[in-house]
Amino acid sequence: MTNKLRAAIIGLGVGKAHAKGYLSSPDAELVALCDANEERLLQSAADWKVEGKYTDFQTMLTEAKPDIVSVCLPNALHAPATIAALQAGAHVVCEKPMAVSVEESRQMVAAAEQANRHLMMSYNYRYRPDSQWMCRVAQSGRLGTIYHVNIHWRRETGIPGWGLFGSKAASGGGALIDLGVHVIDLGLWMMGFPAVQSISASTRTLFGPEGRKTWGRKPGQAIEGGFDVDDGGMAFLRTASGMTMFLQVTWAEHTTPQEDSFGVELHGTEGTAALHVRHYGKDDTLRLYTEIEGEAVTVIPSVRFDGTQGHEAMIHSLLGQIQRGETPSSTGIQGLTTVQVLEALYRSAAEGREVKL
Ligand SMILES: NC(=O)c1ccc[n+]([C@@H]2O[C@H](COP(=O)([O-])OP(=O)(O)OC[C@H]3O[C@@H](n4cnc5c(N)ncnc54)[C@H](O)[C@@H]3O)[C@@H](O)[C@H]2O)c1
Asked: What class, spelled out in words, does domain 126-306 have in CATH?
């Protein structure tokens, strides 16, 4: 029997979802929490009966000496907190996006190598049974040659009205870095991370500055701290093998009220597999379009959602891989790849031209 890993969480917004994974895992014990917001910190510590309570992450790392740390801070703090945790000897699960720049992401990968610790990314949507089915189908060869991938995340009124999501300095970007990162990762992961060669993108900032289409805000009630990021955009990518990808992401647009959906379509010479998830639902999310005996057919796969999913399943999976001495399946290198795509995408949009990677 291996020893339980002593886990800690920095940032208790989405960090609560990480906690669920640590608290229900036989491989870990949640020993410390950190949040600058003392009320949030004390409430979470009381709810989960966690002894270690800190408002400063460096103090927590020094005193609690965790084996594994979830970094769930605003984007611009991912790099400093992750590097500090790695240097303190902990493995890290870092929330997405990995960092706000390629430069910082590289420093994080280097810190993990130097410390000989695992740096893992929090890509929770990989841990849906329907996403996993798509990944298996993509890798099985059943779709023939996959020549195009369509990815999207579209919301009608979905600009986050809390935290620092509207601040470029704190978050590095808007809808594309917040939602785009998930679907870019899903598309690249399903395709086995093909080398992206070029990107042509455009972004827009139309609703956020006026407080329109923002969660928890009345029209005209602007977000504290301002809004200087994209609230939507699109991109066209080419890979070295000639495959193309099209990405469409919106935090806000005029469409079906309350729409919030993401999806991936894998178009192959022998079939198309499609994942369309509305409102984070689990029913009727998959289609396979193919031909049987010369006729076009639609297959409706039904996958079971009976185990743990999302962040909880992700934490269980990563802990299990570490305990078994395996390389974790979600790596810092993959996080860096997605940040490279995002940085090139923003550069392409700013310069109004195609960018080579
Ligand atoms: N994987 C997902 O589906 C998902 C969902 C939501 C958020 N996220 C990511 O998680 C991160 C946090 O987002 P959130 O929605 O939880 O934001 P949030 O604002 O709700 O929570 C962030 C927490 O960090 C704390 N904090 C800020 N600076 C700190 C510091 N220096 N030291 C200690 N605590 C500090 C804040 O007090 C706050 O409680 C972001 O990177 C976001 O992109 C991922």
From this structure: alpha beta
Task: Say if ligand 1 is within 6 A of residue 303 CB.
Answer: no
Domain boundaries, the chain: 5-122+311-330, 126-306
Asked whether 80 lines ligand 1 (CB < 6 A), one says no
Give tens-digit pLDDT for 238-253: 999 999 999 999 999 9
| Closest atom of ligand 1 to CA, residue 160 | 15
Q: Residue 212 C-alpha to ligand 1 middle, in angstroms?
A: 23
Regions of the chain where pLDDT drops below 70: 1, 219-220, 222
CATH number, domain 5-122+311-330? 3.40.50.720
- Report the C-alpha gap between 58 and 314 in whole angstroms: 25
Helix, strand and coil percent figures for the chain, each rounded to 5: 35, 25, 35
pTM of the full structure: 0.96
pLDDT, tens digit, 9 for 90 and up, residues 142-195: 999 999 999 999 999 999 988 888 999 989 999 999 999 999 999 999 999 999
Nearest CA to ligand 1 atom 23: 11
